[in-house]
Amino acid sequence: MTPLSPALRPPRPGLFTRLRRDYFATPLSALTSLFCVGLLGFLGWTLLDWGLLHATFDPAARQAECRAAGGACWSVIANRWRLILFGLYPYEEQWRSALASGIVVITMVLSCLPRCWSPRRIALVWGLGFGLFYLLMKGGIPGLPLVREEQWGGLALTLFIFVSTAIIGMPLAIAFALLRNSRLPWIARSSALLIDTIRSLPLVSILFTFAIVLPFVLPDFVLQEKLYRVIAGSALFFAAYQAEIIRGGMQGVARGQDEAAMSLGIPYHHRIARIVLPQAFRNALPATINQFVITFMETSLVVIVGFFELLSSANAAFGTSEWTFAFVEVYVFVAFLYFIFVFGLSRYGAYLERRMATGQR
């Protein structure tokens, strides 16, 4: 159906007309709208008054001064931000953790640009970014003292676990999805059993198993640092869920396209890479972005196996008697950091949906 030209389209109603139609069409709708606006206004003013107008920003202020002001005590952030952001990382080397975190963020931004979407460029961007991150965090070369993984913490550790999980888990998820769609029944059923088994277990139990149990059942030469075992368990958990998301996207691709490609003699790997998977990822894009968001937030679970990631570093920041009263401010600060990354992921997903809807490459 040919769309109408702009000259023939009916005029769009004005803002006042749309507000009256959507929110004040009936007396009940008007009352509900006014109540919600009033409630939001009250909450907004309360947060503004607590967080800014009557807040304490003086780094030298303590509990007495903060209580007297009656608002938030941001002094805890001014005094404990290093512990929150860097965890147990050596104080003199914390510039390396900050620089490594910045490199990861820049790498993520570059990989979101359309001009970097070729396999060679994306591999180059992630290879350089991840390599520089690991070199800075680990050290062990002239000029950079060695810092063992047990000392990593804060934001850098959260980003490392998230990025490693995604880099390892996504190719594994694609392999799982293809194996489950195999025409050979024994391969498809074995893959389905593996995926369903992993999905039936909570992530906490998988992390505990990889971090604590595996050293008792595997020989020493197979084991690596505990951090890498935790990342392997997290990636396996991510891959099981993402495989089902990709498989759902593949089911949305018309079967006739694959059959037509087979009739033309196109090899299997070309059919999958150029016909099936691009459309499957387009169909599964909202669920994929949601899975990335969940994975980023689930990095906080590594605290159960002894790692000092962002949230556990925040808990330590107010764990002393001097700052016990300021736990709300610390959690608000950490929530803001999580919000920046999660909101960025969701907005990028919305951008990709709009871009794919218009058929751009």
Automatic annotation (TrEMBL):
Give the residue spans that cross the bilayer.
28-48, 95-113, 122-141, 153-179, 200-221, 227-246, 292-311, 323-346
GO terms of biological process kind? amino acid transport
Any single GO CC term annotated in Swiss-Prot or TrEMBL for this entry: ATP-binding cassette (ABC) transporter complex
Tell me how this protein sits in the membrane.
Multi-pass membrane protein
SUPFAM superfamilies from the UniProt entry: MetI-like
Annotated localization:
Cell inner membrane; Cell membrane
Q: Where is the ABC transmembrane type-1 domain?
A: 155-344
Q: Which UniProt keywords apply?
A: Cell membrane, Membrane, Transmembrane, Transmembrane helix, Transport
Looking up Gene3D superfamilies in the UniProt record yields: MetI-like
Give yes or no: UniProt keyword Transmembrane helix.
yes
Q: What is its main location?
A: membrane
Record's InterPro entries?
A: AA_ABC_transptr_permease_3TM, ArtM/GltK/GlnP/TcyL/YhdX-like, MetI-like, MetI-like_sf
- GO MF, any single term: transmembrane transporter activity
Pfam families, per database record: BPD_transp_1
Family as reported in the entry's similarity comment: Belongs to the binding-protein-dependent transport system permease family. HisMQ subfamily.
UniProt name for this protein: ABC transporter permease subunit
| Taxonomic lineage of the native organism | Bacteria, Pseudomonadati, Pseudomonadota, Alphaproteobacteria, Rhodobacterales
